[in-house]
Amino acid sequence: MSTRTLIRGGLVVTAADEIHADVLIEDGRIAALAAHGSDAAAGWTADRTIDATDRYVIPGGVDAHTHMELPFGGTFASDTFETGTRAAAWGGTTTIVDFAVQSVGHSLREGLDAWYAKADGNCAIDYGFHMIMSDVNESTLKEMDRLVQEGVSSFKLFMAYPGVFYSDDGQILRAMQRAADDGGLIMMHAENGIAIDVLVEQALARGETDPRYHGEVRKVLLEAEATHRAIQLARVAGAPLYVVHVSAEEAVAELAAARDKGLPVFGETCPQYLFLSTDNLAEPGFEGAKYVCSTPLRPKEHQAALWRGLRTNDLQVVSTDHCPFCFTGQKDLGRGDFSKIPNGLPGVENRMDLLHQAVVDGHISRRRWIEIACASPARMFGMYPQKGTIAPGADADVVIYDPHAVQTLSAETHHMNVDYSAYEGKTVTGQVETVLSRGELVIDQRKYVGRAGHGVFTPRSTCQYLN
User: Which are the contacts of 464, defined by CB distance < 8 A and separation ≥ 6?
Assistant: First the structure.
């Protein structure tokens, strides 16, 4: 059965344009756009008409960095693919790219298949995978080529977490060389984990056990040093590089210097670094544990450099690194020892709204909001223009967004499966009203009407900034 949906009267905002246009959707894709009130639009008929008067009509968000059901520190991220993708939809995100994990001693294929199994039939929105490589060797290097062909075209390596995910410089160089050959993109967690472990041990020996010390031992200079080193290794390998969750001014400076040389180096930051700070890590009692993530929150002064990086395109993408752990029963594993607090915080539902607040606050433009949250992640990870824009032929992943609604972020009202909000009590202007994924309603006038299993695996081509 062919179904047609017509969205009338809204302001269509993409990374490239803002136009008062009606949008016609047919069989899960954008069929046409026409100026509101034009003869072309007047002739359209549909099974369902959505009135978007005084609303924005925007592409569904693409969150290219989530960790649903991630095993970490003896526990698991509290959002499943079902709860996490539902929460994403509530927040206007219609595609996630999650991280499949290779365990040391096992193949990439085993790790990827385990993640296919977790997600299959459970997702409310579309999804793709990156591959975390924990064990770079001759066999796993060969597997990289096959994964790229399968549509898993990005590989995450860690300079942090010795004994868990850590790769040494030689392993990193080999993986980068392989990526240079097969078109893969290396994503780097850039922190000097070997040095950080020394500082953790010394802090605990001094009795410095509170959550705030998590930020103090993970020094800005150790993020900047690792970022610099990753860039140089990528230059040696002739490979592109994407640095995840950039939090510090000095790390942004390393990316900017590389980009000024014309190198294919890219950077992502996250809402927590733009809106939260070490003040949160230092909240009294054990409250700071809610904000323990890596890279850590930084002093407020770093925020200006991150916003500037987003305006100058030295940072291209804002993702969430959504990796929630409940305060009670998970975060409190680290009472008396900050190094045992599971690293990560919830955010998949808040990203689009927080970035709209940044538009209201004058940090970025409306089109830049859509660029960093939708179009750039889709291009970076080989999904554009299927995802990330509103144009004929694109998937009908569309959000009707009320730019005037005022809401207060709270664990009482969010849909993420976690017992606290990192933004508790923060008032923001703007709210998702209706969400379509491939033309099907997922959120209808602030009511969830989606279903587990609607979302499908989306194979990706290679990074579209390199063509």
Answer: 379, 380, 382, 384
CB atoms within 10 A of CB 433: 18
Q: Are 129 and 95 in contact (CB under 8 A)?
A: no
Q: Provide Rg for the chain, Cα atoms.
A: 21
Task: Report whether 126 contacts 155 (CB < 8 A).
Answer: no
235: amino acid identity, one letter: R
CB atoms inside a 10 Å sphere around CB 171:
18
Residue 101 pLDDT greater than 70, yes or no: yes
CA 145 to CA 23: how far, in whole Å? 39
56: which strand partners? 11, 401
Question: Tens of pLDDT along 149-195?
Answer: 999 999 999 999 999 999 999 999 999 999 999 999 999 999 999 99
Rounded Cα–Cα distance for residues 186 and 132 (Å)? 10
**The two structure tokens encoding residue 103:** 């365990």
If we measure between CA atoms, which residue out of 341, 356, 351 comes closest to residue 428? 356
CA distance 179 to 150: 15
Q: In angstroms, rounded to a whole number, what is the distance separating the alpha carbons of residues 314 and 309?
A: 5
CA dist 365 to 63, 305, 317, Å? 19, 17, 14
Which runs of E-coded beta strand occur in 325-460? 398-408, 427-437, 440-443
Nearest to 67 by CA among 79, 75, 59, 56: 79
**Cα separation, 137 vs 282, whole angstroms:** 41
**Strand pairing partners for 436?**
398, 441
